[in-house]
Every structure is written in C-alpha cells, then in structure tokens.
C-alpha cells in the first residue's frame, strides 16, 4: 500500500448519524459527556448477578487489556466478556473471545475463517460500502462504532471500509482507531464523546501519517494513549519522539497486560507502551 498518501476527505455527516443518535439518546451524556452510551449506568446491568471473573487480575470496576500484537488487543471485563480487536488469522489471543471486531484494510486485520466459538463477529465494513453500524449491549460491555474511509493499494478511497470501535465497561470508554487513514472532523470527535483510552496506530505510513495521528490524538484529549501497529522499535520511537513535549508522560511497561479503572487513570495524560506478546 503506498505511503504516505494525501489524507482522504473527511467523513460526511451522514456517516455520523448512528453514533450521534446514540449520544442524543443517552440520558447520562449531558452529565458525563463520556462515550456514546454509559453502560455502567444501565439499570438492567445493575440488576445482573455477579459473575466469575475472566482473569484473576480483573476485579470489579476494572477492565483488563492485553496487547497481543500488531492491532490486536484482548479486552476482558469483570463480567466475563472478552473481545479481540482486529481479529485475524496471524495474530490471535490464546483464548477464543466472545466478541471479535475486524477491519478490512488487509488480511492482518480480519479473518475469513473466524473461530466458530466466537459469538459476535463484528466487521467494520459492509460489502455494499454502506456504513456498518453497531449498538450492542453484551453482558457488562457496550460496543459501538464510527465508520471511516480507507484507501486501496492504488490510493483510491474505499468509503466506510474501516471502523473506529468503541468499548465501554466499568465506566471506562476505550476506542480502537483501527486502520485509520484520515484525520477526524469536529463532528467525528463529538460523536465519539469523551474517551478514556485510545489504541492508536503509529506506523506513520500504511495508516495515517505521524502528523495526522498526532492531530487526531490531540483533538481527542484522552488520559491514556496506547500505541499499536508499529513494525519495529524505530517506528515506535519516531512516534514517541514526535509526541514528546506535548504534555504527555511516556511509560514503557514490561508486561503486555494492563489493568484499567477510572480510579487509577493517570492524572497527567500518558502514553503507555505495551510490548506485544500477550
């Protein structure tokens, strides 16, 4: 895929109707202004009986996040819901997730033969190029998406070929930017709501260029950024060097596993680098 290429034109307002409608419909949005839908305040979920934890380190009001590699993370909720992002046939978690999200840029971001044990296989695109739309409550997890465009190998635009998937659990909102190829409009930013964690591609070539991804991340103003989709230390360090001095601390962790909670979000915005290999 050529790189870098001129940014694709911003999404039209029609693509934003799904998430914008969710924001308008959310009774808690005016108060919290976080994420399109506040699952943690759903009265139905508050009546659910406690469930066995998916992993020993994920407790109530926490979310587990493990970097598997490339663009794949395993997300685990306290209620036992597991999600694999950009699920593909090359980089997979050791467990069969209940939910798999996919994007269509190329084969390291989707699978033609997902494990039959996956209950929800969520493609970030539709074959007719209409926007994919999700608004799903799965146990103590909510999943939504914002459709975006991608470019093909010739640099032509494929409308609605990608999705930014948004996950909410334990009063935390996590966005996976997927194979993002263009900057976001103010309407996009408003539709996404106030996010807590962003999983961002930082290769600077196959996805959005470094200037573009920095523009997106600055606009989102999230407490935690976790880089993904980098091909070597040089690629990662190029992003970190460019991002240095932008009021973000940079932390490198030795483990690919991370436990997140609203109570322990960093007071200073932080880029957390997780090694692949979960």
From TrEMBL:
Lineage: superkingdom: Bacteria
Gene3D superfamilies xrefs: Ribonuclease Z/Hydroxyacylglutathione hydrolase-like
Query: One Pfam family, short name please?
Result: Lactamase_B_3
Alphabetical UniProt keywords: Signal
The signal sequence is: 1-30
- Name the chain's protein: L-ascorbate metabolism protein UlaG (Beta-lactamase superfamily)
Q: Which organism is it from?
A: Ancylobacter polymorphus
Its taxonomic path starts at: Bacteria, Pseudomonadati, Pseudomonadota, Alphaproteobacteria, Hyphomicrobiales
């Amino acid at each position: 895929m050529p790189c870098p290429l001129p940014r694709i034109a911003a999404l039209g307002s029609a693509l934003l109707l799904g998430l914008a409608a969710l924001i308008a419909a959310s009774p808690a949005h005016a108060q919290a202004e976080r994420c399109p839908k506040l699952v943690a305040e759903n009265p139905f979920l508050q009546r659910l009986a406690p469930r066995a934890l998916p992993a020993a380190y994920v407790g109530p009001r926490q979310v587990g996040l493990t970097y598997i590699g490339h663009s794949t993370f395993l997300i685990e909720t306290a209620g036992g819901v597991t999600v694999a992002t950009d699920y593909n046939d090359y980089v997979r978690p050791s467990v069969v997730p209940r939910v798999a999200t996919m994007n269509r840029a190329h084969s390291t971001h989707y699978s033609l033969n997902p494990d039959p044990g996956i209950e929800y296989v969520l493609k970030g695109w539709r074959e007719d190029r209409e926007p994919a739309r999700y608004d799903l409550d799965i146990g103590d997890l909510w999943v939504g998406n914002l459709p975006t465009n991608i470019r093909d190998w010739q640099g032509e635009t494929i409308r609605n070929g990608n999705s930014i998937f948004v996950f909410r659990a334990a009063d935390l909102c996590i966005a996976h930017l997927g194979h993002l190829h263009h900057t976001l409009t103010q309407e996009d930013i408003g539709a996404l709501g106030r996010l807590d964690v962003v999983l961002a591609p930082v290769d600077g070539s196959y996805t959005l260029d470094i200037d573009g991804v920095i523009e997106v991340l600055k606009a989102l103003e999230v407490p935690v950024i976790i880089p993904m989709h980098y091909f070597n230390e040089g690629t990662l360090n190029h992003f970190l060097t460019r991002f240095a001095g932008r009021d973000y601390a940079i932390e490198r962790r030795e483990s690919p596993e991370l436990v997140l909670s609203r109570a322990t979000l960093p007071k200073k915005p932080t880029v957390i680098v997780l090694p692949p290999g979960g």
